[in-house]
Amino acid sequence: MKTAFSVLGIWSFALLGAAPAARLADRLAASHEAFLEDRRAALPELSDPYGVPEAARVVLERSDDALRPGLHWKRDVVATVFWVGELPTKNNPTPNVMSAWDQNWQANFGGYDDPDRRLGWCPADFSPHLNPFYIALPYNDVAKGGVHRPEASKVIPWFWRDYRGDGISVCKGRWVAIHRRGKVCYAQWEDVGPFEVDHWQYVFGDEAPRPNRNQHAGIDVSPAVRDYLGLTSGERVQWRFLDESQVPHGPWRDWRGGEPELPRR
Question: According to the CATH classification, is domain 65-246 in 3.30.300.20?
Fold first, then answer.
């Protein structure tokens, strides 16, 4: 019995001593965790010592729904013909030796884009250095002083995508499609007119062209566009903007070098 009592006593003493030890371990663990939390709060980089970037998040940009009319077809628009090097006349008071965005337009084009002497889609006397398929619309995004008009960033759908700094037009070179009687021609926006320079409500909105002496014309087209569409100045067309990726193969892309393509009738 003595031996049994001694063993029982030792076992009971061990159990009684284990409880305080366990509580001490719990307190130490809790203190250590609190210390680590304090350190994480004081030094956030400890939780991400390698600077791993956050997971990608989807960001929804402002809707362009209000600007979409500027990308739709403009219908029943009177088109007039103009050309590089055209001298002033009653119905064209501005000489076209320069454009709104190119002070040396005629020289950079390579010469006078004679509307009467043609070889295919190009002037007969030289091979142009610039696309002979060009147009003018009545809006200039660059105002006097070399800064963009105050409304430009709000009304031009592609403004911030193509912005390269003050004084650099985001309109110059923009592609348009021109439709007439089932045929579509593609051309680049290279000048401003007819007559107006600030009619964004028409160019990018849904207003009609403002009244003018050319039957309220709303687009000027080059001799190459005229010939491709079989157009007479003063006739009506439809036109719209489009991205360069949407422009199909055709003479508006292949005008450089080689034998000129003959006009289609």
Answer: no
